[in-house]
Amino acid sequence: SRYFTINDYPQGTPARELFELHEQALPALAEDEVRIRNTWLSVDPYMRGRMSGVKTYIAPFELNAPLEGAAIGEVIESRAAAFPVGTKVRHMGGWRDIAQLTGDQLEPLPAFDVPEQAYLGVLGMPGMTAWTGLKRIAEMQEGDNVLVSGAAGAVGSLAVQLAKAKGGTVVGIAGSPDKLEWLESHGVKAVSYRDRDATELTEALQAACPEGFDVYYENVGGTCLEAALNTLRVGARIAVCGMIARYNEATPSPGPSNLAMILIRRARMEGFIVFDHWAHYPEFLGEVGPQVESGQLDYTETVEEGLERTPDAFLELFEGANRGKMLVRL
Ligand code: NDP
């Protein structure tokens, strides 16, 4: 098995040299173990938090031990009756080509007629996050005006489409011209945050939706949050999903100076971790799965080729190189 480790807990933006590729012979299978050849690896922004050496809502990665992450693969050897050779599974033994796990660490793939890697993106954790934040946290209602930051990423690209399907004005904030174009092609008003301070971004958001927003789906933090707070309607709800603009900061920067807008607009801002809502995964699949299968929902992917490129794929998340879900194909 070839796998990646990190050799330190980085301050600021991680350097490529942080990641080391190792090779190790795997022991013979024990009772209830399976060996899996991974076909797709997921890289996700939350992994940066696990590289900080402190426990947040999840334990930190161990130094010089195989990194973990969501992956999809095929069982190639099995001593677990429920997972015979040839079964396609999802599990957390990513950042490696061959994983050896026990049966209770594996999930069979749901049965929609979609490419298997969709279960790492639009029908996996990021998709479930978009649906949970919009529906269960922000309690989006028919006709609400919705603002989404990080709008062309894995979570954001589903959030904007689910919001759009319920009417109202949907505005997406993203970083590059091709992302803005993709958003516009789905009827989403697109606003760039690049080269704009909070005042300029506020003006751009007000021009896109003069009425203001009932829901803000927060993926980015910083300037995006500051501008979004200025555009809230009375009774707005903010689903705090993530704040990626902050993950690589070596020293915390001051928060939005206008946090009091929550009070003035009687808005509700609520953080959530998708895993707490996982009991609703079947409900999410029942609703979103058929729409992905039929092509009604668009999901884009950005794919890096080969295990060696896994750290690069991860680091590119912080440069905005991905549209839709960032994946590694083995
Ligand atoms: P994305 O596919 O959205 O990839 C990250 C994107 O973030 C980049 O493409 C880039 O897009 C944008 N970005 C990166 N750095 C910055 C920056 N400094 N300022 C503004 N934008 C930046 O990732 P995911 O969809 O997987 O995750 C989106 C958010 O959701 C993250 O904050 C993540 O932590 C969070 N999350 C939370 C979960 C929960 O349970 N609460 C579960 C899953 C994800 P651009 O080109 O537009 O800048």
From TrEMBL:
Organism of origin: Halomonas fontilapidosi
The entry's keywords: Oxidoreductase
Matches recorded under SMART domains: PKS_ER
Name of the protein in question: Enoyl reductase (ER) domain-containing protein
Pfam families per UniProt: ADH_N_2, ADH_zinc_N
Record InterPro entries: ADH-like_C (IPR013149), ADH_N_2 (IPR041694), ER (IPR020843), GroES-like_sf (IPR011032), MDR_fam (IPR045010), NAD(P)-bd_dom_sf (IPR036291)
Keyword Transit peptide attached: no
CDD domains linked: PGDH (cd05288)
Span of domain Enoyl reductase (ER): 12-328
